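Input chain follows. Return structure tokens only.
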Amino acid sequence: MSSYNYENILANIASGKVVPYLGPGALIDVVNKETGESMPADSDSLILAMNNGRPMSPRLMYEFPRAAMDMELKKGRSFVNRFLEGLYGQQQWTRAAVHEWLADLKPPYVIDINRDTQLQDSYADTPHLLVHGIARIGGTDYRFRIHHYDGTAYTEIDHADADTSLPILLKPMGSPLPEPSFIASDADYVDYITELMGGFGLPGFVKQYRKSRQYLFIGVPMTRDTERMVLSDIIYAADEPAGWALIKEPNAKEERFCKKMKLEIIRDDITGLLDAAGVNVSLPTPREAKVQEAMA
């Protein structure tokens, strides 16, 4: 059981005052249904998966956008997009405990910097708005697309036509659904972050809704500039304090950044959060999860 008192945070997530912000750590218990292998979600595992299990040079292993840029230069942008679509859109994955919790709770606004579909699956029975980040696409001043989900299918809409009473799912780095689109390489991030800073990376209703919100960062890396720049702009106009970050063993860099962003570090992991929420779960190893899936 966690020693941290999550009561107020959990109550405010349900009301929408506190916004869940999901990173790769939220998928820590997800495995492939056929092989039992963990879902590649963090930077290192994505690089290895993209390069057929082989590590790249230390310079490229530093973070996934850098490695994806190298692959894009060698094999074309479509190679990286096909890799991500195949990984997240065509393979069968077990459900994350965090997403099972969110499926029951249905917060009015969730931010997910992963590129999988589990958040969308959590709202599969609920009409919602999906805001996708896009990059390096002509014919628009904006770096997002909006889709309205009516309970059965997605339809792309103009931001002026969005029903803002619906839950908002913000996936800035993209998703395979409803149309595969990803922000992955350095060039993608440069374009997206530039427009995000300029006010063209988010629709107006999101910028209005986010005012004076607080955030709970779940499994979000705080050590790389890329994620930190996206984070800083997405939570602009947050309340003070801006929220909380689940980091079991923060390093000095994470502590400095969280202090700068007015985020309280909770030295706990996802198990402690879910236990406080009444979700009894022990995060399985891939081998344990494979056995459980086979017996289901």
